[in-house]
């Protein structure tokens, strides 16, 4: 009997071990199941499929969309119309929803909805009211459209009740100021979106997330009044397909004189010169909207006036736009530099972007002098500093940094804030000029949180941003550089790295004009927007919009510091009238008010200032939207309406899945499951070892 008990003990232990292993496996499956569900939710949000299904499971094509951009440039002001044509090729009634970018400083003021020969003009309303009007029209079967601003450079169009075989055209109009740098003028038009990472978003496995889930409900990293949804910041992506989405462009430039060196670095163009400028269009008028469009030019007349001064009187006062090119007698900085390079290695930087970023950083390292100090910080889901604090730019340290940079790869999420705080909090040398060079596509959704950190932690450092990729977040990059008393450089191709980084180095070492002041005639009280004028670097003009309570006459005095004190007198009597100056001032003023959140302003106080201003000047803002409704019912009673998010074209060079949103972060639950699986493997190995030991002869 005792012998039988001894024989049973190993069997009992084996069964117990097997039972324990089975229970452990069941626990793991239960732990992994929600994670699998979460990953499925991500794919539902980010799928690039161009079809939807009705209640009976039948496939319905999403609306096909064509975009046509028409620009009219007069001097330094551009009036732009963006036409979006939605074609419903299915036999069902559909609603198209589309997130799209616009230039970050665009003053959006018009909406027209075209249905056949009918044109319905949109109206500016408070955002909640506009959405309510749209929803009511949508439910009543009326054709309607609404345009919301979700970020200063990110908008959303919804078009309801597009009938079978029908086409509805939405025309959105805006104004913007033409950029000027080193004697060249430039316009930039974004055509697609790099999906933006949202820190702090934890997938709730008990409730399915959709493209309409508000971001503010998922994370504290954005303000509570943020109305952007998952589908706005993380749009569906699909490969470029001209039969599904295409863009055409026509630009008419009235420069007042012949032009030269008209270039578009990323799109082939056709140029027809005129007496006062040029007419330009894309060589392929069905181009894929997969990267930002950029156009630059220079006047032939070398002795062009260095001053552009325009005015527009309204009931709200006299509005002024001034662009002035100061003298370019830069003084080189003799102080050694302390440069902190911060490079984005997140998943959105995969493909061509990480190649451009590495090349830009390597170029920056080559500009360092022996007396300089430096370090490199990379960030994705986590961040890492090559050196814990800046070290001397010795040959040994530079060689180590170059090896480090060559081995950088893109993966994971975009946890930018910890890397930014690390860079701004490193020990600072009093003998060196601290400069932070931030290399990123800025594909993030927590811009306000990042701007607050820059304002609070910048100190005496200067922040220079380098935008990378086919569709970077220009709003954050420009705003961060302006707040950081630096400049923004855009690199859209590996071929531009050398020239763009050389130009940046020139700006890093040679600020042209500091301590800029504008003195108006007695009795004139200007309300500036932006509220302050930062330091100028080589090739940069002074650009100011202001509202005056009464017309200004006399002389405006501009002063600043270069090699000494510099002053220039400008006559205000010859200001040219220009429509749109008031809207441009209001747009800049709204931008200042929205940025005041970083200085401690509350959501209620910002809303209380922005809303009446946007309604008064009839502009789209965070709190106002454009809505247009055709009051004639179109969709018959009983016919279902199928809502569909229209995918954005995958940015050129981005190494992401053919359709969908990649996993750019590793959720905590997934880390837990991976660890648990490793424990299971270890347990299995232990069980195997015990069995082998029992089989060995005693």
Overall description:
By secondary structure, this protein is of the alpha+beta class. Among the domains are: about 70 residues; about 170 residues, 3-Layer(aba) Sandwich (Rossmann fold), CATH 3.40.50. It is about 25% helix and about 35% strand. It is built from 12 helices and 38 strands. The protein has an 8-stranded mixed sheet. Strands 22, 23, 24, 25, 26, 27 and 28 form a 7-stranded mixed sheet that branches. A hairpin with a 2-residue loop joins β3 and β4. The longest helix has about 45 residues. The N terminus is likely disordered.
- Total strand count, please? 38
Report the portion of residues in β strands. 25-35%
**Beginning-to-end CA distance, first to last residue:** 22 Å
Gyration radius over CA: 29 Å
Task: Outline the biggest β-sheet.
Answer: 8 strands, mixed
**CATH topology category name of the domain at 337-509:** Rossmann fold
CATH architecture classification of the domain at 337-509: 3-Layer(aba) Sandwich
**Fraction of helical residues:** 25-40%
Tally of DSSP helical segments: 12
Structural class: alpha+beta
Protein name: Marine proteobacterial sortase target protein
Signal peptide: 1-38
Organism: Steroidobacter agaridevorans
InterPro entries: CHP03788, VIT, VWF_A, vWFA_dom_sf
In brief:
The protein is built from 12 helices and 38 strands.
List the helices and strands and how they pair.
Elements: H1 2-46, E1 51-53, E2 59-61, E3 64-74, E4 77-87, E5 93-101, E6 107-115, E7 118-121, E8 123-126, H2 127-139, E9 142-151, E10 154-162, E11 167-177, E12 179-181, E13 184-189, H3 230-233, E14 237-238, E15 245-254, E16 259-263, E17 269-274, E18 277-282, E19 293-299, E20 307-314, E21 317-324, E22 337-344, H4 352-366, E23 373-379, E24 383-385, E25 391-392, H5 395-406, H6 416-425, E26 433-440, H7 447-457, E27 462-468, H8 474-483, E28 488-491, H9 497-509, E29 511-519, E30 527-529, E31 536-537, E32 542-548, E33 555-561, E34 565-571, E35 576-577, H10 581-595, H11 603-617, E36 624-633, E37 641-645, E38 648-649, H12 668-695
Parallel strand pairs: 3-15, 5-37, 14-38, 20-35, 22-23, 22-26, 26-27, 27-28
Antiparallel strand pairs: 1-2, 3-4, 4-11, 5-10, 6-7, 6-11, 8-36, 9-10, 9-36, 12-13, 13-19, 15-18, 16-19, 17-18, 20-21, 21-32, 23-24, 23-25, 29-31, 29-33, 30-32, 33-34
Pfam family, one: VIT
Signal peptide: 1-38
Protein name: Marine proteobacterial sortase target protein
């Amino acid at each position: 009997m005792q012998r039988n008990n001894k024989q049973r003990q190993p069997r009992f232990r084996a069964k117990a071990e097997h039972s324990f292993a089975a229970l452990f496996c069941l626990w793991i499956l239960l732990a992994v199941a929600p994670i699998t569900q979460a990953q499925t939710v991500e794919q539902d949000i980010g799928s690039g499929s161009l079809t939807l299904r009705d209640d009976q499971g039948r496939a319905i094509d999403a609306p096909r969309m064509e975009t046509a951009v028409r620009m009219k440039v007069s001097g330094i002001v551009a009036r732009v119309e963006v036409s979006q044509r939605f074609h419903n090729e299915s036999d069902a009634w559909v609603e198209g929803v589309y997130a799209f970018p616009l230039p970050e400083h665009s003053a959006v003021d018009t909406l027209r909805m075209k249905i056949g020969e009918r044109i319905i003009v949109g109206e500016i309303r408070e955002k909640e009211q506009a959405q309510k009007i749209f929803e009511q029209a949508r439910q009543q079967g009326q054709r309607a459209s609404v345009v919301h601003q979700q970020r200063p450079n990110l908008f959303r169009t919804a078009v309801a009740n597009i009938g079978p075989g029908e086409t509805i055209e939405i025309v959105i109009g805006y104004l913007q100021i033409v950029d000027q740098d080193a004697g060249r003028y430039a316009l930039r038009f974004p055509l697609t979106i790099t999906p933006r990472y949202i820190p702090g978003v934890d997938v709730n496995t008990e409730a399915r997330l959709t493209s309409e889930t508000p971001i503010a409900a998922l994370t504290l990293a954005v303000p509570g009044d943020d109305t952007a949804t998952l589908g706005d910041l993380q749009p569906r992506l699909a490969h470029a397909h001209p039969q599904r989405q295409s863009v055409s462009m026509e630009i008419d430039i009235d420069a007042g004189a012949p032009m030269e060196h008209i270039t578009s670095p990323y799109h082939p163009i056709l140029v027809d010169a005129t007496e006062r400028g040029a007419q330009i269009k894309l060589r392929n008028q069905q181009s894929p909207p997969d990267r930002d469009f950029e156009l630059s030019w220079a006047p032939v007349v070398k002795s062009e006036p260095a001053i552009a001064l325009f005015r527009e009187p309204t009931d709200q006062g006299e509005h002024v736009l001034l662009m002035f090119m100061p003298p370019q007698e830069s003084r080189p900085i003799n102080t050694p530099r302390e440069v902190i390079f911060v490079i984005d290695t997140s998943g959105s930087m995969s493909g061509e972007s990480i190649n451009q970023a590495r090349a830009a950083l390597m170029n920056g390292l080559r500009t360092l002098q022996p007396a300089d100090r430096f370090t490199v910080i990379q960030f994705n889901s986590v961040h890492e500093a090559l050196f814990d604090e800046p070290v001397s730019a010795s040959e040994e340290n530079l060689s180590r940094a170059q090896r480090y940079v060559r081995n950088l790869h893109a993966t994971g999420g975009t946890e930018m804030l910890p890397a930014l705080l690390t860079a701004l909090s490193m020990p600072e040398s009093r003998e060196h000029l601290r400069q932070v060079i931030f290399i990123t596509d800025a594909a993030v959704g927590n811009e306000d949180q990042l701007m607050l950190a820059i304002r609070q932690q910048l100190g005496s450092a200067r922040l220079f941003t380098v935008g990378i990729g086919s569709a970077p977040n220009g709003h954050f990059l420009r705003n961060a550089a302006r707040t950081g008393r630096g400049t923004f450089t855009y690199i859209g191709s590996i071929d531009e790295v050398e020239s763009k980084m050389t130009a940046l180095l020139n700006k890093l070492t040679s600020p042209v004009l500091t301590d800029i002041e504008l003195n108006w005639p007695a009795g004139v009280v200007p309300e500036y927007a932006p509220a302050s004028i930062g330091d100028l670097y080589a090739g940069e003009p002074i650009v100011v919009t202001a509202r005056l309570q009464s017309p200004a006459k006399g002389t405006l005095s501009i002063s600043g510091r270069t090699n000494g004190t510099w002053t220039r007198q400008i006559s205000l009597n010859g200001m040219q009238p220009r429509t749109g100056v008031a809207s441009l001032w209001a747009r800049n003023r709204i931008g200042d008010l929205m940025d005041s959140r970083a200085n401690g302003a509350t959501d209620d106080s910002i809303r209380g200032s922005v809303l009446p201003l946007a309604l008064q000047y009839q502009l789209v803002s965070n709190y106002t939207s454009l809505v247009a409704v055709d009051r004639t019912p179109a969709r018959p009673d009983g016919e279902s309406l199928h809502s569909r998010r229209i995918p954005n074209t995958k940015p050129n060079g981005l190494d992401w899945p053919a359709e969908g949103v990649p996993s750019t972060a590793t959720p905590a639950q997934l880390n837990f499951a991976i660890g648990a699986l490793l424990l299971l493997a270890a347990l299995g190995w232990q069980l195997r070892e015990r069995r082998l030991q029992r089989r060995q002869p005693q």
